[in-house]
């Protein structure tokens, strides 16, 4: 049997291991935050925002931002039904009610037209998740937010490398943005996240909340000004992040190359849809994805089985959040319920060989044309 193809893994070089070793050996005492501050600076300069705060996860960054906006019991937060649980968990933890709306059939991101119908006097925020590197329609979302006085938040956990029109990077356009550095992501620290914003007051509140409620300007030692959280990144994790940021152009370019190669190999097949890349934008291609046309009759289970037989990891499209047992079903969200039944994520780690990409493509080809 051929070697197994993983759906994703990080790109780690001697640079990452040397930075991590330096942090482990020397990053203590008055140097215990050096790599963290350096990582935050590198990241905000790359994304193009004024402020950045390294966190323990993207989920933590989202929790901090929502808390700083005052989201609490009785509030409503609008988000796409197609999401990983991490996007809605902070909403629930803060006591607010998630309002699930359907996704756009082409972008697989939140459908702007449906947001207008979901807004109520209790709406506190709109979360736009850039799914798999695909970009939500930020121009439409920001216009809706401005018209109603509702902040738009960008969950960019999967969108490092994605660029909206006019060279605006994913996560830089909303009231705040969040990112993930999980081991599966394009840029990794093993685990971790980042909060970014251009709002100085919001930045200061999140900074305080992220450090047990201790304000930066507080002169009293061990004196919290509010009940906060412990969502800090370690210096060793940040050291790995610093090395990754020195390679970020290479890392993001390679993900896009793999995406383009899949389109070359599979683009002539009838009835397949790929991650969209509208004119003037760039898809970060964190997770190249194939959606089968209904007429083909190829379901998720068929694809999972075919990949297993070829010794290739299969990663399914996210289930709708409202289908999970802790929420009430929203069956009117037809795209969120129907698309996952005929979609699959394709392996796309940085050092995949062309032969491995070809093996994956061959599975899809055989499913579509089994002769």
Automatic annotation (TrEMBL):
The lineage of its organism: Bacteria, Pseudomonadati, Pseudomonadota, Alphaproteobacteria, Hyphomicrobiales. The modification N6-(pyridoxal phosphate)lysine is found at residue 185. Belongs to the DegT/DnrJ/EryC1 family. Keywords: Aminotransferase, Pyridoxal phosphate, Transferase. Signal peptide: none annotated. It comes from the Bacteria. One of its GO terms (biological process) is polysaccharide biosynthetic process. This is Glutamine--scyllo-inositol aminotransferase. GO terms for molecular function: pyridoxal phosphate binding; transaminase activity. It comes from Rhizobium oryziradicis. The active site is at residue 185. Gene3D superfamilies: Aspartate Aminotransferase, domain 1 (3.90.1150.10), Type I PLP-dependent aspartate aminotransferase-like (Major domain) (3.40.640.10).
């Amino acid at each position: 049997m051929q070697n197994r193809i993983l759906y994703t893994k990080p790109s780690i070089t001697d640079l990452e291991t040397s930075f991590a070793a330096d942090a482990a050996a020397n990053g203590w005492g008055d140097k215990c935050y050096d790599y963290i501050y350096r990582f935050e600076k590198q990241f905000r300069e790359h994304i193009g925002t004024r402020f950045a705060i390294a966190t323990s996860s993207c989920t933590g960054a989202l929790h901090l931002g929502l808390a700083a906006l005052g989201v609490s019991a009785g509030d409503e937060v609008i988000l796409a039904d197609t999401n990983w649980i991490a996007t809605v968990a902070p909403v629930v933890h803060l006591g607010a009610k998630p309002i699930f709306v359907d996704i756009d059939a082409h972008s697989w991101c939140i459908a702007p037209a449906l947001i207008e119908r979901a807004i109520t006097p209790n709406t506190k925020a709109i979360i736009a998740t850039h799914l798999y590197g695909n970009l939500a329609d930020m121009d439409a979302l920001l216009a809706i937010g401005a018209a109603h006085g509702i902040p738009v938040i960008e969950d960019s956990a999967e969108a490092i490398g994605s660029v909206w029109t006019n060279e605006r990077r994913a996560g830089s356009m909303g009231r705040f943005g969040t990112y993930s550095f999980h081991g599966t992501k394009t840029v990794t620290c093993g685990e971790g996240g980042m909060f970014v914003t251009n709002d100085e007051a919001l930045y200061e509140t999140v900074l305080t909340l992220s450090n047990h409620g201790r304000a930066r300007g507080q002169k009293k030692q061990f004196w919290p000004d509010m009940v906060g959280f412990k969502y800090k990144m370690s210096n060793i994790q940040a050291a790995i992040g610093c090395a990754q940021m020195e390679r970020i152009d290479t890392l993001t370019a390679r993900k896009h190359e793999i995406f383009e190669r899949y389109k070359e190999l599979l683009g002539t097949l009838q009835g397949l849809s790929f991650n969209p890349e509208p004119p003037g934008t760039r898809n970060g291609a964190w997770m190249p994805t194939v959606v089968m046309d209904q007429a083909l009759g190829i379901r998720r289970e068929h694809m999972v089985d075919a990949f297993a037989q070829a010794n290739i990891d299969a990663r399914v499209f996210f289930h709708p959040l409202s289908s999970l047992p802790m929420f009430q079903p929203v069956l009117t969200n037809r795209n969120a319920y129907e698309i996952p039944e005929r979609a699959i994520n394709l392996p796309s780690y940085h050092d995949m060989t062309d032969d491995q990409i070809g093996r994956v493509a061959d599975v899809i080809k055989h499913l579509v044309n089994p002769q």
